[in-house]
Design brief:
- By secondary structure, the protein is α/β, with parallel strands linked by helices.
- Among the domains are: 34 residues, no CATH class; 90 residues, Phosphorylase Kinase, domain 1 (2-Layer Sandwich), CATH 3.30.200.20; 210 residues, Transferase(Phosphotransferase) domain 1 (Transferase(Phosphotransferase), domain 1, Orthogonal Bundle).
- It is built from 18 helices and 49 strands.
- The strands form 10 sheets. Strands 2-3-5-7-9-11-13-15-17-19-21-23-25-27-29 form a 15-stranded mixed β-sheet. A 10-stranded mixed β-sheet has the order 1-4-6-8-10-12-14-16-18-20.
- Helix 12 packs antiparallel against helix 14, helix 14 runs antiparallel to helix 16 and helix 16 runs antiparallel to helix 17.
- The longest helix has 26 residues.
Length: 952
């Protein structure tokens, strides 16, 4: 072969690489520039095609980089201005990279599509860019545990969609910014649920303007700052509050009496201030479980009688709170009481808890009071009681003396979680997991911020947290074997620290994708701890991916592998050119290596489907995964065929839709459908995992959705009760899925069969649109409509489409309107010969409450409660089912209207994806309600499971 031929082959090779590239040129250049400014980037960050090459931590949509998640990668360097070139970026999570330093570049304000920015546990410094307020899509902003200084930017007040604001543990100074004239401030964040501003150097007064009755705040954490002045009475206007921490400041004056109006408050910490006046009266705050009024200058008073009315109280902290007089006999009988801290007061008389006390009581600290007599507990309950510094300790009674030694308070903080693994011998650096497997665990510390008193030696609490945490990690299909929490400590800021170890399941260590996903899940509020623990943040340790000298990979090996791979690719190209001139050998090679070689030429065009993310399954594989398509694995059936559930070898559950012989499509139609479905990816659409097309079979393989259809829930078949709030979330999720199909899919897609049987509910009752068998892509040549044979489901079908055979997006809107009516009535579209649209239209009377639809509404929706927004919901449904498409709204307009209705009902439409209905949670999981059960933000889902088992 001559030199000219070799040059031509190299040009062919380069052209092939260019054609194969899947990454936008600007995005690829930006990522390569970031890589050049960082050390310790993942080893597979090579080449100029990050999307096509599957760079660790990089997710793409339609050639654009939409997500960078590189948690705990030991990255070193600064975040350069090149980040601003990634204009489609939605998620940026660089948390737990302690050596990421320097300021945030001003160019970050160019990321107009950014919805999640998480830099927790890094080393960034300098001021927060004031332009951050221009990121209008931002939902989640966590800059926790860095070294940011200067004031909080006023412009953050412009982030009208912001759900979570966490600036904890920095060096921020100045006052809390509030709006004035054209200058924005934090008081404008009406939809934000979290103000986490603790452990800074903020000063000045807490502005009264900061709070209003229009806010939806759950957590106000202003602890460990330098605030002075009074607690503003406007705090009592925020009825949604569940946690308030104002402790460890220099606040003075009286506590506003209207604070007792916050009926949902669970935790109130006002300790370590200079508050004066009477102790606040908290009567009526029946959900309070944690109260800390310690170390203030309140007026001398008796133990407040209202304490006995707080039936949910678990922890009472009133150290050095100017209390005097006898201790009420019923103080310790509150049913959930666990910890009482009343030391350094002026309490006197006899302490008698011999008969009436909570079964959960763990500790009572009455040191340095004036208790003269003590009647010990009978029955041998293991309760720590501290009486040192009281007159009763001067007596010689041996029973009393045993409570007068403060040394008994030092309960052990160590927890031997692996006692059954003491005989397991692990190599250097490895740790025995709770399941006695030696591995290199993911390590870090979870810091919980709404807890300041706790029986640290009681491992029961940590077992519960471990169970919650394990469930969360497994729900993301992460390769996790077990988790362990240990070494509880309370620091000087009142934060509980728990050492965390997460152990890998199959190998002895996690790969880099696994590590990034664990960090991502723990940083974006996907994990919600149980009642006592509250909001948290994670500081992860550096993970050694190559622990053990025999497994360390040198840079020479990496370079050699890259060079070798390039040479191998070149040889393959040369072999392909040679095979072009050897047709017989080429056919043999295709038959051996092309997974679609058996594509039936009589049914299709013979070419392999162009898939994005979906894979081809063999018939034998699916036969194995479904136990030979046994009836026990069947989960449903329809006109198309039967649906079976199965489990892949990775543990992932799948649903297999198997066509009956008489309902199979032609090969071209089947190929077009799987190509179409493999291109749509949205959290409210059921994901196509792959297909099977062999042995005269047509099967589609989807992700498994565990809670069935909306129809099943409305009919009572699934056992899941959907109340008004959950039905709003179902409507919003399904609408968002349709908006994606209509406006963001390429080409746009008309579903053509929207109905309650095609809306599925996942484990968190999030709605997912399914069954795209009748879907039609809308090409550029079909800008107004698609002329096609009428197909759909009777009762949901657009009458205009039926009459004209012209299919438009408004046909889906009509079907969606019928679905909305189905959600509020619980009735099928056609029932006993009556059509739901006509029935609602005839019964409506807009002059009466709920439009006088009481007899039609589904009783399970909660008719005994105030159904806020229902009239607007009915109005929206009736607009969707207008006779002509021109009068119907677009699905984008439908989404906005449902979001407005949700806000009227007291819901945050941004957080709906993490919702689990209270009825379902109680029936299916057995967990009681706690302050964080509605408080989830789980942005952007998880990586594809196949990315979690990459070779090391």
């Amino acid at each position: 072969m001559g030199r000219r031929s070799l040059v031509l082959l190299l040009l062919v090779f380069i052209k092939c690489l260019i054609i194969a590239a899947q990454t936008n040129n600007n995005d690829a250049a930006a990522l390569n520039a970031l890589q050049s400014s960082w050390k310790n980037t993942p080893s597979n960050w090579v080449g100029s095609d990050p999307c096509g090459s599957g760079w660790v931590g990089i997710e793409c949509t339609n050639s654009r980089v939409t997500s960078i998640v590189l948690t705990n990668m030991n990255l070193t360097g600064q975040l350069s201005g090149d980040i601003g070139s990634l204009s489609e970026l939605q998620t940026l999570d660089l948390s737990s990279n302690k050596l990421m330093t320097g300021p945030l570049p001003q160019e970050i304000v160019n990321l107009k599509n950014l919805s999640s920015l998480c830099l927790t546990g890094c080393g960034f410094s300098g001021p927060i860019p004031n332009g951050i307020g221009s990121l209008q899509q931002l939902l989640y902003l966590a800059l926790t545990s860095n070294r940011f200084s200067g004031p909080i930017p006023n412009s953050i007040g412009n982030l009208s969609n912001l759900y979570y604001l966490d600036l904890t543990d920095n060096q921020l100074s100045g006052s809390i910014p509030v709006s004035s004239g054209t200058i924005p401030g934090l008081d404008m964040l009406l939809q934000t649920r979290h103000f986490h501003l603790g452990k800074n150097q903020l000063s000045g007064t807490i502005p009264p303007q900061l709070f209003s009755s229009n806010m939806r705040l759950l957590h106000v954490l202003l602890d460990n700052n330098n605030f002075s002045g009074i607690i503003p009475s406007t705090l009592g206007l925020v009825q949604t509050l569940e946690v308030v921490r104002l402790d460890r400041n220099s606040l003075s004056g009286t506590v506003p009496p209207n604070i007792s109006n916050i009926a949902n408050l669970h935790e109130l910490a006002l300790s370590n201030n200079s508050l004066t006046g009477p102790m606040p009266n908290l009567t009526g705050m029946n959900r309070l479980n944690y109260v800390d009024m310690s170390i203030n200058s309140f007026d001398i008073s008796d133990v407040p009688p209202w304490i006995s009315s707080l039936q949910s109280l678990t922890t009472l902290m009133m150290e050095n709170a100017q209390l005097e007089g006898p201790i009420p006999a019923n103080l310790f009988s509150l049913p959930d009481l666990q910890t009482v801290e009343l030391s350094n007061n002026h309490l006197n008389g006899t302490l008698n808890i011999s008969t009436t006390y909570s079964n959960l009581l763990q500790s009572i600290d009455l040191q340095n009071n004036s208790i003269t007599d003590f009647v010990p507990i009978t029955g041998g309950n293991n309760i720590t009681i501290l009486l040192e510094g009281n007159p009763t300790c001067e007596k010689t009674d041996q029973k009393t003396q045993s409570y007068c030694n403060s040394s008994q308070s030092s309960s052990t903080n160590s927890m031997s979680r692996n006692n059954n693994c003491l005989q397991v011998s692990c190599s250097s650096g490895e740790v025995a997991s709770p399941n006695c497997k030696c591995a290199y665990p993911y390590k870090g510390t979870l810091f919980f911020r709404a807890l300041s008193a706790f029986d640290l030696g009681n491992s029961t609490y940590y077992v519960t947290v471990e169970e919650y945490l394990m469930q969360t990690l497994k729900s993301y299909e992460l390769p996790v074997d077990s988790v362990s929490l240990s070494n509880p400590t309370i620091d000087s800021f009142g934060y509980l620290g728990l050492s965390l170890e997460v152990f890998p399941s199959s190998e002895d260590r996690f790969n880099k994708t696994g590590i990034t996903m664990i960090g991502y899940v723990l940083n974006n509020l996907s994990f919600r701890p149980p009642l006592l623990f509250g909001p948290y943040f994670l500081i992860a340790d550096t993970y050694d991916f190559y622990a053990g000298s025999n497994k360390r990979i040198s840079s020479g090996i990496i370079i050699g592998a890259v060079v070798g791979g390039s040479l191998l690719l070149l040889l393959l190209v040369l072999a392909g050119v040679y095979a072009f001139h050897q047709k017989k050998r080429a056919r043999m090679a295709i038959e051996q290596n092309n997974p679609f070689a058996n594509w039936d030429l009589n049914m299709g065009n013979g070419s392999a489907p162009q898939l994005k993310g979906a894979r081809r399954f063999s018939f034998e594989e699916l036969k194995k995964y479904t136990n030979n398509f046994s009836d026990a694995n069947g989960v449903g059936s329809g006109g198309y065929g039967k649906v079976y559930q199965g489990t892949l070898s990775t543990g992932q559950r799948i649903a297999i839709k198997r066509a009956q012989k008489d309902s199979m499509q032609g090969g071209n139609e089947f190929k077009t459908e799987i190509e179409l479905l493999s291109r749509v990816h949205h959290k409210n659409l059921v994901t196509l995992e792959g297909f099977c097309f062999e042995q005269a079979e047509q099967m589609l393989v989807y992700e498994y959705i565990p809670n069935g259809t909306v129809m099943d829930s409305l009919s009572g078949k699934s056992g899941i009760k959907l109340d008004w709030m959950s039905r709003l979330r179902v409507a919003l999720g399904a609408a968002r899925g349709l908006v994606y199909l209509h406006e963001h899919a390429n080409p746009p897609i008309i579903h053509r069969d929207i109905k309650s049987n095609n809306i599925l509910l996942d484990e968190s009752l999030n709605a997912k649109v399914a069954d795209f068998g009748l879907s039609k892509p809308k090409l550029d040549s079909e800008r107004n409509h698609v002329t096609t044979q009428v197909k759909g489901t009777v009762g949901y079908m657009d009458p205009e489409y039926y009459m004209t055979q012209q299919l438009t997006e408004k046909s889906d809107v009509y079907s969606f309107g019928v679905l909305l009516l189905e959600l509020i009535t619980g009735r099928r579209p056609i029932e006993r010969g009556k059509y739901i649209v006509k029935e609602v239209r005839d019964a409506m009377d807009k002059t009466k409450e709920l439009y006088d639809l009481h007899e039609i509404l589904d009783p399970a929706i909660g008719l005994g409660t105030k159904l806020k927004g229902l009239e607007k919901f009915v109005d929206l449904a009736m607009r969707c089912v207008e006779e002509t498409g021109a009068k119907r709204p677009t699905m984008g307009e439908v989404v906005k209207e449902i979001e407005n209705i949700m806000q009227l009902s007291g819901l945050n439409p941004i957080a709906e994806s993490a919702y689990t209905s209270e009825t379902y949670e109680e029936a299916g999981k057995g967990h009681s309600h706690h302050p964080y059960s509605d408080d989830g933000f789980n942005y952007s889902g998880s990586f594809p499971p196949s990315r979690l088992i990459e070779p090391k």
